[in-house]
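Researcher: Structure prediction, please.
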Amino acid sequence: MVSPTLRRRRLSRLLRELREEKGLTAGTVAAEAKKRSGRARGWSASKLTRLEGAEWKRVRADDVLVLLDIYEVTDEEQRAAYATLAREANQQGWWASFGDVLGSGQFVGLESEASRIRTFESVTIPGLLQTPEYARALISASGQVTDEHELGQRVDARMFRKSVFSRARPLTYWAVIDELALMRITPDLVGQLDYLLEMGTRPNVGIQILPAGRGPHAAMTGQFVLLDFPAPDQPVVYLECLSEEIYLEKDEEISRYQHLYDYVQAEALSVSDSRDLIERRRAAL
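Model: Predicted structure follows.
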C-alpha cells in the first residue's frame, strides 16, 4: 500500500537535505526559484519552509524540477525518481473517503506503511486493538461527537485502520498498556478483553501490561507511538495532546523515545503473564 503521507515526508526531507548540502538559505533558494520558474508570484522562503517541513497537501512537479536544477541534480534517473515521489505524494489515501473524521490523516498515512509499530498507552486500549463497541464508547465519552452519523464514521475509520494486519507483509505490532486501561473496561465491554486475548495469539503482535501496583514509571507523561519504516525512510515518534498531533523525527528525539520504550517494556509483565492478568480481569467481569 503506497502511503502519500510517507512519500510527502520523504520528498520534503530529501529536498531539505539537498539545500543544506549546498549551504543555501531558504531565502536564497526561493529567490532563485522565482527567477528560474518565470513566475513573479508563488515562491517565497515561507513556501520553501512549508515544503521542506511536509506542511503541504499538493506539490507541483515543475516546482520540484526547478529545485533540482538549483541543487544541480542532473542525473535523469534521479530526477525521474523525484518526479515519481512527487506524483505519489499527491495521491489521496483511503482515509480521504472518511472526510475529516481522521483529522489531517497524517498518522494513519504513516501507520498504513509502517513495518513496525511500538506503542505505550496509559489510559486507553490502542486504536489498532480496539473493538467497535469499545471505540464507540470511547469516542462518545469524549463529549466531542454527538451526531450519530459522525460517530459511526469515526468507528468505521478506526476499524478500517486494522487493514495493516492483513497486508501481504503485516507489520510487527507491540503494545505496552498500563493496567489502568484494563480497569476502565466495564462489563458491557468485556468483548474488548476477549479481543486483546485473540490478538495476542498472532505471531506479529505482542501485548504487555504494565501493572498499576508498580508505581511511578518512565512514561508517566502519557502515550506515545514509535513507527519504523523500510529503508530509506526514517523512524517517527507520534504524540497526541488533545487535538494536537506532534511528530518527532530528529535522531536525538527518536533515541530518547526508544530508550523510554525500553524502560516501560522492561517494567511491564511478560507477554505470558500479561495474558494471565487479562484473563483474570475478564473473569472478574
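Model: Residues 4-91 form a domain with the 434 Repressor (Amino-terminal Domain) fold (CATH 1.10.260).
Researcher: Thanks, that helps.
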